[in-house]
Design a protein that fits this description.
Distance between the termini: 94 Å
Mean pLDDT: 89
Largest sheet: none
Helix content: 55-70%
Keywords: Cell cycle, Cell division
GO biological process, one term: cell division
Structural class: mainly alpha
Low-confidence stretches: none
Number of helices: 4
Organism: Pseudosulfitobacter pseudonitzschiae
Order of helices and strands: HHHH
Shape: flat
Radius of gyration: 39 Å
Protein name: Cell division protein FtsL
Length: 114
């Protein structure tokens, strides 16, 4: 009976060792994937910072003013003036559309028949 107990104990230790071995490698793989994701996020943040800097550089008022001057013949862009804005009362809204009644129902005859 002791030999069966010893064999079962040895087999359970071997099984647990195999399980611990697999878990160790799964954990190391998860850590490596996490580190790779952190590096990808850092690269994305760096790229975003570069794109924001490029956008700020391209939207400089002096550059945009020069582009407007160069393309004035094609675009006809002028600076905004306060006279160009109006009041909400000056907006001409279209009149409401009246929908035609295509299939009328006479309610008074329906109540009398019931």
């Amino acid at each position: 009976m002791r030999s069966v107990f010893y064999i079962l104990t040895v087999l359970s230790v071997i099984g647990l060792a195999f399980w611990a071995y697999r878990e160790n490698y799964a954990t190391q793989r998860a850590i490596a994937e996490t580190e790779q994701l952190h590096h990808d996020i850092q690269r994305a943040h760096a790229r975003l910072a570069v794109l924001r800097a490029e956008w700020a550089y391209l939207n400089r008022p002096s550059r945009l003013r020069d582009l407007v001057d160069i393309n004035f013949d094609n675009l006809g862009l002028l600076p905004l003036a306060p006279e160009q804005f109006g009041l909400i009362d000056q907006v001409a809204y279209p009149p409401p559309v009246e929908l035609p009644i295509t299939n009328p129902v006479d309610v008074s005859t329906m109540e009398a028949s019931e």
